[in-house]
Write a structure and sequence with these properties.
By secondary structure, this protein is of the alpha/beta class. It has helices at residues 38-43, 47-53, 80-93, 106-117, 141-150, 157-168, 174-186, 213-222, 243-253; strands at residues 5-8, 14-20, 27-31, 57-61, 99-104, 122-128, 202-207, 226-231. 37% of the residues lie in helices and 18% in strands. α8 links the parallel β7 and β8.
Length: 255
Amino acid sequence: MPDPQFVMVGDGHRIATYTWGDEALPTVVVVHGFASSTRDNWVSTGWVRDLLRAGYRVLGLDQRGHGASDKPHEPGDYGLRTLAGDIEAVLDTYLVDTARYVGYSLGARVGWEVALDLSDRIERVVLGGVPDGIPLARLDIAQVRALVEEGTPVTDPVTQNYIALTERVAGNDLRALLAIAGGMRASGTVDPDPAHAPAQPVLFATGSLDAIIEGSRALAAACPQGTFVEIPGRHHFNAPGSRVFREAALAFLAG
């Protein structure tokens, strides 16, 4: 894991970035999910290793509120367009004209926006576990807030899973992650619009045990060049480690 290189984005926050491989190679930008990080989502699971072996340069970033990036506590700092703008700022800083994009969960939802906004720069897109509807809608914000402010135990099973994920990744700030969930709820662009789907080739991949699988499948059907892959035996929280997912993504990225 290389030391982070920080990119200053428009509102003054620092985004931690990481690169592997020769900059002359085709670039794949990898964007992790909620309560995760570049290390957790892409390095520990073998993605970076396999992308390097396939002949790519890999550009990773910790989304704001995660990893080594700044972690503001205000929901207003976490709109979807803001998160997508961070990706653009990183690509601009690294002088990346064109790239392939791989995102999971929150990183996939952001990727839908990036693919639309940067259609001339993002050539192919992999969206794993992409939520339809409001991102993090299954997270019980009131229970998380009660945990943060009063130490009240979380009882909702789905929210317990998110908390367990948060505690598993070193350096997570629960107040920042709570702000992210609030920012997603308040965003003006919370629903992927099938009528305005990315035109690039897009691979959707979702675990067979993930509650959002049918929504992801429907989004794939809405894309002019959409493809859907079901990740067998995986739920939302362990799908990134699937070899089936990695192999399908690598074959797709190769075109």
